Structure formats: C-alpha cells, structure tokens
Amino acid sequence: MSKEAEKVASRKKRAARVRYKLRLNSDRPRLSVFRSNRHIYAQIIDDTKGVTLVSASTLDKDFRRRPGDSFTKETAREVGKRLAERALAKNIVKVVLDRGPYLYHGKVRALADGARDGGLVF
C-alpha cells in the first residue's frame, strides 16, 4: 500500500470511529464539520432520514470575506454562529458534534464554540 493510500485509509478509519461512537448514544441530529486549508464547512444532518437540515460555510454568498483573506479561527467561529442562527430558525437546538477525522482543536473548536454561542446545545 502506498503512503498516500495509507493516509486516506487512516483518515477514513478515524472518521468512522468517531461516527460509530456518536451513533451509540444519539437520537439528535449530527453537526458534521469538514475543514480544508482554505475553507470550513458545517452541516446539521438527520441520519434517520439521510437529509441535510442546515448548512453554513465560508463559501456562503452572504459571508463577507474578500479573496486573499486568510482562513482564521475567527472566521470559523463566525461560520458556527451562522449555522446556529439557521438551526434555531428551524427549531433545532440539540445536536451532537461530529468532528470527523479532525482533532477538537483550533478551527474545529472555534466553530463549535461559535455554534454554542449562537444557541446550539451539545
């Protein structure tokens, strides 16, 4: 197995491990986070129906970010607040955080803190 294939396999394994633990004790919708080097995406998913209920990212049209601006913890926190606003508009209050293969640190933590500040409970 090549080095790149091992990285992909271990990433999928980490994400599956996190999601398995979430499904054991959760009837709440899942707040899933994806982070790239330039953007962060978050969505609230109802796993029983397999439907995305709410989403937010740094690519949203109403998100004021100029090209060339760096992706910081502050922008991640703002995405979390926007996600919480949209979720509360749809009467979604309690969720469970799915951090995927990412550590709960830095930008992922900032997004979670922003969502909590916005009113989500997890």
Spatial separation of the terminal alpha carbons: 38 Å
Main sheet record? 4 strands, mixed
Order of helices and strands: HEEEHEH
Fraction in beta strands: 15-25%
- Count all strands and give the number: 4
CATH architecture tag:
2-Layer Sandwich
Rg estimate, integer Å: 15 Å
CATH topology: Nucleotidyltransferase, domain 5
Give a short overview:
By secondary structure, the chain is of the alpha+beta class. Helix content is 42%, strand content 19%.
Structural write-up:
The protein has helices at residues 3-24, 73-89, 107-118, and strands at residues 30-35, 40-46, 51-57, 96-98. It is α+β, with helices and mostly antiparallel strands and 122 residues long. It has a single domain (3-118), classed as Nucleotidyltransferase, domain 5. It has a 4-stranded mixed beta sheet. The longest helix has 22 residues, at 3-24. The radius of gyration is 15 Å and the shape is globular. It starts with a helix and ends with a helix. The mean pLDDT is 91.
